[in-house]
Write a structure and sequence with these properties.
The chain is of the alpha+beta class. The chain has 6 helices and 18 strands. The longest helix has 19 residues. Bound molecules: flavin-adenine dinucleotide (FAD).
Length: 256
């Protein structure tokens, strides 16, 4: 099945064309299409290659043999609601982290020391259940290069509302305008936001895109910002940081 998606509305950064996206129903998916989740970490060009995403069939949460089994199309908010209702711990950090489980696992998304890999047991990748120990993962990185269908987690009791409040406070320095989260990964022992600030690009605006004046590592859309404006700012930051600090910063945003 094909679904038409308007990425200027559906992506978190509010940039992108209206395109047909193949809906994955089972293991028979096109091998040449680019996989997306709910587009919270993406910058999509006006002419992207063919795209695919999991269908709603993979939006589920169940408990089996003492494990929590979650479909990869399940949104983070739904996982938090389920855990709150069933008093399950360790998923509180997802309350302020937009995405679907597949995107969250692929990016090993998280907040400070809380990462989704912390309590994963195994991930179904392209139809095969792979144990956590066999998946390479680190800061905002995994070696997963195929479709995640679902993941199995340990169940620990004790959902903590207090943690949700802590995470909310941690996020209070984030801008309110549309973005795709952090633009660059933090280099080792450094903060990408600080480097952007040091080269004078905090608050720098080109057209309707800007490095936020609230938090420099957020590339924000101030209204009808374009792909070209976003790319211009990304390239400018990379170049100027390299010239001043000899550091090659790497995008966290995925450009498609
Ligand atoms: C306001 C804001 C705040 C954010 N804060 C944080 C934060 O604090 N910490 C953090 O880590 N991230 C943060 N992000 C980024 C984003 O929430 C995460 O990267 C999230 O994992 C994206 O999930 P998604 O479903 O939208 O994936 P997408 O953005 O659609 O895709 C991201 C990547 O995941 C891959 N992918 C998607 N689905 C699957 C699948 N089923 N199988 C395999 N690969 C898949 C895609 O191919 C792509 O490479 C933030 C984003 C926003 C907009």
């Amino acid at each position: 099945m094909i679904k038409k998606i308007d990425f200027s509305k559906r992506s978190s950064i509010k940039i992108g064309p209206i395109v047909d996206v193949y809906q994955i129903e089972d293991i028979n998916y096109p091998k040449d299409a680019i996989l997306i989740g709910s587009a919270n970490n993406l910058l999509i060009s006006p002419t992207p290659p063919p795209l695919m995403m999991l269908s709603k069939k993979f939006d589920y949460i169940k408990e089996e043999s003492g494990k929590l089994i979650i479909g990869a199309a399940t949104p983070s908010g739904k996982i938090v609601s389920y855990c709150r209702k069933h008093n399950i711990a360790n998923f509180e950090f997802l309350a302020h982290l937009p995405g679907t489980l597949g995107g969250i696992i692929k990016m090993n998304a998280g907040l400070k020391e809380y990462e989704v890999f912390n309590n994963i047991l195994a991930v179904n990748i392209a139809g095969e259940l792979i144990e956590k120990k066999d998946i390479e993962h680190g800061y905002r990185y995994t070696d997963i290069n195929d479709v995640i269908f679902e993941a199995h987690f340990k169940i620990e009791n004790g959902f903590e509302n207090k943690r949700i409040e802590e995470f909310k406070i941690m996020r209070s320095n984030q801008p309110k305008e549309p973005s795709a989260g952090s633009c660059f990964k933090n280099p080792p022992n450094e903060y990408a936001g600080r480097l952007i600030e040091e080269v004078g690009l905090k608050g720098k605006r080109i057209g309707n895109m800007s490095f936020s004046s609230v938090h420099a590592n957020f590339l924000v859309n101030l209204g009808a910002g374009t792909y070209e404006e976003a790319i211009f700012l990304i390239e400018k930051a990379k170049k100027e940081i390299y010239e001043k600090f000899n550091i090659e910063i790497e995008e966290e945003i995925i450009v498609i």
